[in-house]
Amino acid sequence: MEILRDILLVTIPSLIVFFTAYFLLRNLIKNDQDKRKQEIILQSNRTITPIRLQAYERLVLFLERISLESLIIRVHSPGMTAAQLQANLLTTIRSEFEHNLSQQIYVSPQAWEVVKNARSNIVKLINTEFEKLPENATGIDFSRKLLEKVMELEKEPTKAAVEFVKSEAARLIM
Predict the structure, then answer these.
(1) Rounded to an integer, what distance in angstroms lies between the CA atom of residue 134 and that of residue 138?
(2) What is the per-residue pLDDT for 154?
Protein backbone atom coordinates (compact mmCIF):
# COMPACT_ATOMS: atom_id res chain seq x y z
CA MET A 1 0.00 0.00 0.00
CA GLU A 2 2.79 2.34 0.83
CA ILE A 3 4.39 1.73 -2.58
CA LEU A 4 1.12 2.66 -4.30
CA ARG A 5 0.92 5.81 -2.17
CA ASP A 6 4.51 6.73 -3.09
CA ILE A 7 3.83 6.11 -6.78
CA LEU A 8 0.70 8.29 -6.61
CA LEU A 9 2.59 11.03 -4.76
CA VAL A 10 5.10 11.16 -7.59
CA THR A 11 2.73 10.49 -10.50
CA ILE A 12 -0.08 12.94 -9.66
CA PRO A 13 2.13 16.05 -9.42
CA SER A 14 3.99 14.92 -12.56
CA LEU A 15 0.71 14.58 -14.45
CA ILE A 16 -0.46 17.97 -13.23
CA VAL A 17 2.80 19.58 -14.39
CA PHE A 18 2.64 17.69 -17.70
CA PHE A 19 -0.95 18.74 -18.49
CA THR A 20 -0.31 22.30 -17.40
CA ALA A 21 2.75 22.52 -19.67
CA TYR A 22 0.86 20.78 -22.49
CA PHE A 23 -2.09 23.21 -22.39
CA LEU A 24 0.16 26.25 -22.03
CA LEU A 25 2.36 25.22 -24.96
CA ARG A 26 -0.68 24.31 -27.07
CA ASN A 27 -2.24 27.74 -26.44
CA LEU A 28 1.08 29.46 -27.09
CA ILE A 29 1.51 27.65 -30.41
CA LYS A 30 -2.12 28.33 -31.41
CA ASN A 31 -1.75 32.04 -30.58
CA ASP A 32 1.47 32.19 -32.57
CA GLN A 33 -0.23 30.56 -35.58
CA ASP A 34 -3.17 32.98 -35.34
CA LYS A 35 -0.77 35.89 -35.15
CA ARG A 36 1.09 34.67 -38.25
CA LYS A 37 -2.20 34.26 -40.14
CA GLN A 38 -3.19 37.81 -39.23
CA GLU A 39 0.19 39.12 -40.37
CA ILE A 40 -0.17 37.29 -43.69
CA ILE A 41 -3.69 38.70 -44.18
CA LEU A 42 -2.50 42.20 -43.28
CA GLN A 43 0.45 41.93 -45.68
CA SER A 44 -1.86 40.62 -48.38
CA ASN A 45 -4.23 43.56 -47.83
CA ARG A 46 -1.32 45.99 -48.07
CA THR A 47 -0.42 44.50 -51.42
CA ILE A 48 -3.86 43.91 -52.92
CA THR A 49 -5.65 47.10 -51.83
CA PRO A 50 -3.60 49.42 -54.06
CA ILE A 51 -4.12 47.04 -56.98
CA ARG A 52 -7.86 46.96 -56.36
CA LEU A 53 -8.01 50.75 -56.12
CA GLN A 54 -6.12 51.00 -59.39
CA ALA A 55 -8.68 48.66 -60.98
CA TYR A 56 -11.52 50.90 -59.80
CA GLU A 57 -9.66 53.92 -61.18
CA ARG A 58 -9.23 52.21 -64.55
CA LEU A 59 -12.91 51.30 -64.68
CA VAL A 60 -13.93 54.89 -63.94
CA LEU A 61 -11.57 56.03 -66.69
CA PHE A 62 -13.08 53.45 -69.05
CA LEU A 63 -16.60 54.63 -68.24
CA GLU A 64 -15.62 58.26 -68.76
CA ARG A 65 -13.99 57.40 -72.07
CA ILE A 66 -17.12 55.63 -73.37
CA SER A 67 -19.53 58.33 -72.26
CA LEU A 68 -21.16 59.59 -75.43
CA GLU A 69 -19.92 63.17 -75.12
CA SER A 70 -16.32 62.07 -74.72
CA LEU A 71 -16.61 59.36 -77.32
CA ILE A 72 -18.09 61.61 -80.00
CA ILE A 73 -15.43 64.27 -79.46
CA ARG A 74 -12.63 61.71 -79.79
CA VAL A 75 -14.04 59.66 -82.67
CA HIS A 76 -15.87 62.11 -84.91
CA SER A 77 -13.98 63.68 -87.76
CA PRO A 78 -15.24 66.06 -90.45
CA GLY A 79 -16.90 64.46 -93.45
CA MET A 80 -17.85 61.24 -91.69
CA THR A 81 -21.10 59.54 -92.58
CA ALA A 82 -23.42 58.34 -89.85
CA ALA A 83 -22.53 54.72 -90.69
CA GLN A 84 -18.81 55.46 -90.37
CA LEU A 85 -19.34 57.23 -87.08
CA GLN A 86 -21.44 54.36 -85.74
CA ALA A 87 -18.79 51.83 -86.75
CA ASN A 88 -16.01 53.90 -85.19
CA LEU A 89 -17.97 54.46 -81.97
CA LEU A 90 -18.67 50.74 -81.58
CA THR A 91 -15.08 49.81 -82.44
CA THR A 92 -13.74 52.27 -79.90
CA ILE A 93 -16.07 50.98 -77.18
CA ARG A 94 -15.12 47.38 -77.95
CA SER A 95 -11.42 48.23 -77.92
CA GLU A 96 -11.66 50.15 -74.64
CA PHE A 97 -13.62 47.31 -73.05
CA GLU A 98 -11.17 44.63 -74.19
CA HIS A 99 -8.32 46.75 -72.85
CA ASN A 100 -9.96 46.76 -69.40
CA LEU A 101 -11.26 43.17 -69.23
CA SER A 102 -8.64 42.09 -66.70
CA GLN A 103 -9.92 44.61 -64.15
CA GLN A 104 -12.83 42.30 -63.34
CA ILE A 105 -10.44 40.18 -61.27
CA TYR A 106 -9.98 42.97 -58.75
CA VAL A 107 -13.50 44.38 -58.43
CA SER A 108 -16.68 42.89 -57.04
CA PRO A 109 -18.97 40.95 -59.37
CA GLN A 110 -21.62 43.64 -58.85
CA ALA A 111 -19.27 46.42 -59.94
CA TRP A 112 -18.21 44.47 -63.01
CA GLU A 113 -21.84 43.79 -63.91
CA VAL A 114 -22.66 47.50 -63.60
CA VAL A 115 -19.75 48.35 -65.91
CA LYS A 116 -20.83 45.74 -68.47
CA ASN A 117 -24.42 46.98 -68.33
CA ALA A 118 -23.29 50.58 -68.88
CA ARG A 119 -21.28 49.53 -71.92
CA SER A 120 -24.22 47.50 -73.28
CA ASN A 121 -26.62 50.39 -72.76
CA ILE A 122 -24.31 52.81 -74.59
CA VAL A 123 -23.98 50.36 -77.49
CA LYS A 124 -27.74 49.87 -77.56
CA LEU A 125 -28.30 53.63 -77.52
CA ILE A 126 -25.89 54.11 -80.43
CA ASN A 127 -27.52 51.35 -82.48
CA THR A 128 -31.08 52.47 -81.69
CA GLU A 129 -30.42 56.08 -82.67
CA PHE A 130 -28.55 55.01 -85.80
CA GLU A 131 -31.53 52.95 -86.98
CA LYS A 132 -33.77 56.02 -86.70
CA LEU A 133 -31.60 58.05 -89.11
CA PRO A 134 -32.20 58.35 -92.85
CA GLU A 135 -29.80 56.57 -95.22
CA ASN A 136 -27.84 59.67 -96.20
CA ALA A 137 -27.36 61.06 -92.66
CA THR A 138 -24.05 62.66 -91.84
CA GLY A 139 -21.89 62.06 -88.82
CA ILE A 140 -22.90 65.47 -87.50
CA ASP A 141 -26.58 64.54 -87.72
CA PHE A 142 -25.89 61.32 -85.87
CA SER A 143 -23.79 63.10 -83.23
CA ARG A 144 -26.56 65.63 -82.69
CA LYS A 145 -29.17 62.86 -82.30
CA LEU A 146 -27.00 61.00 -79.81
CA LEU A 147 -26.34 64.09 -77.72
CA GLU A 148 -30.04 65.01 -77.75
CA LYS A 149 -30.90 61.51 -76.59
CA VAL A 150 -28.34 61.75 -73.76
CA MET A 151 -29.87 65.02 -72.62
CA GLU A 152 -33.30 63.39 -72.54
CA LEU A 153 -32.08 60.61 -70.26
CA GLU A 154 -32.51 61.06 -66.54
CA LYS A 155 -29.00 59.72 -66.03
CA GLU A 156 -26.56 58.57 -68.66
CA PRO A 157 -25.63 54.87 -68.16
CA THR A 158 -21.96 55.64 -67.73
CA LYS A 159 -22.61 58.31 -65.09
CA ALA A 160 -24.67 55.89 -62.98
CA ALA A 161 -21.95 53.26 -63.31
CA VAL A 162 -19.25 55.77 -62.33
CA GLU A 163 -21.20 56.63 -59.18
CA PHE A 164 -21.52 52.94 -58.27
CA VAL A 165 -17.83 52.22 -58.88
CA LYS A 166 -16.78 55.29 -56.88
CA SER A 167 -18.97 54.32 -53.93
CA GLU A 168 -17.56 50.80 -53.95
CA ALA A 169 -13.99 52.12 -54.09
CA ALA A 170 -14.76 54.44 -51.18
CA ARG A 171 -15.94 51.44 -49.13
CA LEU A 172 -12.66 49.70 -49.92
CA ILE A 173 -10.66 52.63 -48.56
CA MET A 174 -12.60 52.91 -45.34
Answers:
(1) 9
(2) 86
Q: Determine contact, residues 35/88, Cβ cutoff 8 Å.
A: no
Bridge partners (DSSP) of residue 81 are: 138
This prediction has a pTM of 0.76
Q: What torsion do the CA atoms of 76, 81, 87, 88 make, to the nearest 10 degrees? A: -20
Burial class of residue 25 in the structure, from the number of CB atoms within 10 Å of its CB (0-12 exposed, 13-18 middle, 19+ buried): exposed
What burial class does residue 167 get, using C-beta atoms within 10 Å of its C-beta: 0-12 exposed, 13-18 middle, 19+ buried? exposed
State in Å, rounded, how far the first CA of the chain is from the last one: 71
Q: Which tens digit of pLDDT belongs to each residue from 39-54?
A: 877 887 777 888 899 9
58-104 pLDDT, tens digit each = 999 999 999 999 999 999 988 899 999 999 999 999 999 999 999 99
Alpha carbons 97 and 127: distance in angstroms, whole number? 17
